[in-house]
């Protein structure tokens, strides 16, 4: 019976841990070692449309929120936005998209396999598996930095996040949070 209790505790702890971390974005970045970003002071959008590749189903209001959040986060890091990309130290662009996904979870389950009358209990415990199938939407955002002088890609940051119902209800907060986490990875010191 102790093994059964230990198994139940393990399964419950695993499910709780999985539920608490499923909506946190996975954020990472990559930097071109051949480009020195330490002297950057100004930035501009790479092209007037700002987005690198626009998806047909993209929400234009959400795209505006994203562009403002990206500008605001680079400004918070001390960079100045200029209109002409040729006059900036670095140029930025972004790509965004989403994908519907299916998640299948199988976990152990126990069933009472008998019923007893009288003095004794007849039957036993049955160990089996239960399977749960869920669908969800995964959002992706990538922000790219290009060195204006060398015309080379300098930095690429991205996030992947399972879109929750609260993200859908308050998209502006979700966008700001993900953009902030991505641009935090841009570790160029700003000299003023």
Automatic annotation (TrEMBL):
Q: What GO cellular component entries does it have? A: cell outer membrane
Enumerate the InterPro entries for this protein: DUF4136 (IPR025411)
Which keywords describe this protein according to UniProt?
Signal
Task: State the signal peptide span.
Answer: 1-24
Q: Name one Pfam family in it.
A: DUF4136
Q: Which residues form the DUF4136 domain?
A: 27-186
Q: Classify the source by domain of life.
A: Bacteria
Identify this protein by name.
TraT complement resistance protein
């Amino acid at each position: 019976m102790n093994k059964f209790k230990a198994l139940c505790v393990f399964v419950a702890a695993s499910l709780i841990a999985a539920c608490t971390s499923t909506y946190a974005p996975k954020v990472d970045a990559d930097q071109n070692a051949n480009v020195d970003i330490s002297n950057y002071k100004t930035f501009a959008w790479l092209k007037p449309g700002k987005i690198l590749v626009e998806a047909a189903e993209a929400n234009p209001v959400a795209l505006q929120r994203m562009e403002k959040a990206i500008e605001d986060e680079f400004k918070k890091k001390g960079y100045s936005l200029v209109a002409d990309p040729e006059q900036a130290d670095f140029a930025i662009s972004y790509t965004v998209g989403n994908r519907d996904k299916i998640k299948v979870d199988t976990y152990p389950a126990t069933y009472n396999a008998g019923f007893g009358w009288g003095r004794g209990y007849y039957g036993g415990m049955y160990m089996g598996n239960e399977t749960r199938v869920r669908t969800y939407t995964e959002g992706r955002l990538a922000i790219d930095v290009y060195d204006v002088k060398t015309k080379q890609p300098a930095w690429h940051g991205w996030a992947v996040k399972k879109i929750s119902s609260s993200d859908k209800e308050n998209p502006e907060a979700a966008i700001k949070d993900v953009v902030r986490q991505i641009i935090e990875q841009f570790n160029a010191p700003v000299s003023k």
